[in-house]
Amino acid sequence: MGIINEDSFIETVHMKGLQISLIASGDGTEIIYHKLDSGTMWGIEPQEGWEALEYLCVLSGELILRNGNDTKTIKKGSSFFRAPVEKHYVFEAAAATEFLYVTSRQVFFHYSKVTKEMMELSISIEEKDGYTRDHCQRINKLSMLVGKALELESKQLVNLNLASFLHDVGKLRIPLEILQKPGKLTSEEWEIMKKHSAFGREILEETGLPLLIDAGKVVEQHHERFDGEGYPHGLKGSEISTEASIISIIDAYDAITSDRVYKRGRSKEEAKTELLKCRGTMYHPEILDVFLALIDHLN
């Protein structure tokens, strides 16, 4: 049971592991209630021309605050504020957590609605592509485990959190007869399919939201290969962002182990063998090693 009376909410948006509710708005200031499930991340970042006060107070639970490689805990009754925000901050719920977020500029309707629409869009695209509704969540969960194991900085974790969920949003612009074709694609159809990663970047750029624009750069790269034989730009090695390299591995692992309409998923051990065959060619070797060590401890 939450400690805020839901009758006071002007509007509520639900996303996976997250509830955002606008409590009050006036003179450009908004008070927004957040409820995060354990493990859910939320963040704020600097924006050019943005001079707003941003303040949060933990009502229940506990938040782990990451800034760069630094971490600290914000417990019930404690607060955090910046005016303006000059660094990237990531907050992760250590347990089910509620907090109030106050900002002196309006953000609720633009950010929450567009982000929710993008996430719902990603789920619908995966269903059309033959995956289950949980595909996006699985990619996100495993990607974040690897990101934390690699001790990524807070900005990278924000990018990874969004891009891993939205990695295939560009398939919205792929014709359904290609996306749902049961047989092998022709060379012409494959060239169209390969455009989905660039389409994903374009779709996220069109939102105008800095967080999604940054995530779009990662989305565009998630089919690049470590050896430079990927698409759309043939990037290789360190030219590919760490976040995209993570998603590439997780996406492949999920494709191997998931049941699809046309095939049965293979075992974890078979997937590990398959991924290792492409270590240093398709996949970043060090990141792959971290992931393979992690999945030995997963159910």
From TrEMBL:
Keywords: Kinase, Transferase. GO terms for molecular function: kinase activity. Pfam families: HD_5. InterPro entries: HD/PDEase_dom, HD_GYP_dom, RmlC_Cupin_sf. Signal peptide: none annotated. It comes from the Bacteria. Residues 110-299 form the HD-GYP domain. Coiled coil: none annotated. PANTHER family: CYCLIC DI-GMP PHOSPHODIESTERASE PA4108, CYCLIC DI-GMP PHOSPHODIESTERASE PA4108-RELATED. This is Histidine kinase. It comes from Sporosarcina globispora. The lineage of its organism: Bacteria, Bacillati, Bacillota, Bacilli, Bacillales.
